[in-house]
Amino acid sequence: MVSLHSLKGSASGGTLATIINLFEQYSIAQIQATAKPGSMCPITVVKPFYTPSIFSQLTGVRSVPDSGTLIPSIQAATDVPLVHRSWGLYRTSTHHIEIGEAYGPSFNFHCYMHARNTFVGALTHLAFTIGGLFLLLPPVRWLMAKLGIQPGGGASVENSKHDFQEYRGLAISESGEQAAKTFGRFRSDNNPYMTTAILMVEGAASLLYDGENVPAIKMGGGYLTPATLGQSYVERLCASGITIETKTLIG
Fold this sequence. Notes:
By secondary structure, the chain is of the alpha+beta class. It has ten helices and seven strands. 44% of the residues lie in helices and 18% in strands.
């Protein structure tokens, strides 16, 4: 699982326009279909081992040891199918069997946001739910397009110079003589759009310059994911000022 632990930044007019156009162009059934965990995966996604409690289903709040109070992330609809595709690509690859085995046959991924406490988490989840329901109404989308930030607009460079994003991850092994937990941390001290630019440019550089060290090259191209850029991509991101840390605990 991954959680958005902390964030300072704001959306641009282009992001707002993308959200509005998504609901204008596609039906709810289409959006829900693409958000399913296995919608882009070449193999069948295993049913999650975690069943939310009634309290979690009502409030959206879940407490996870070592991660704190969490609520469903608004990024889950895009990130969860993408990560499961990475798992499927490696599990079916004949060139990277060891990586596919590392994912495990019962791999499952969840995407959350960190909340300060249960009360704040429940309110935040409720706000996102209500906001999503309002987006279903054409008059609301029309007002947002007219009165909201316009494409090309948003925070200035000066106002966003202290922006940052920090994600934290937790992976738990599914088998073995000793259970293992791996903790991960990703932090970028940039505004979200600069972070996106770094991720894209360094991804392109990995494909162009890192050759056979990149799993995506051996896979022969296709509809791939950032995970197939391999360790050289991670090293490039770190060299660009992004912090990526992992720690594994056994037992």
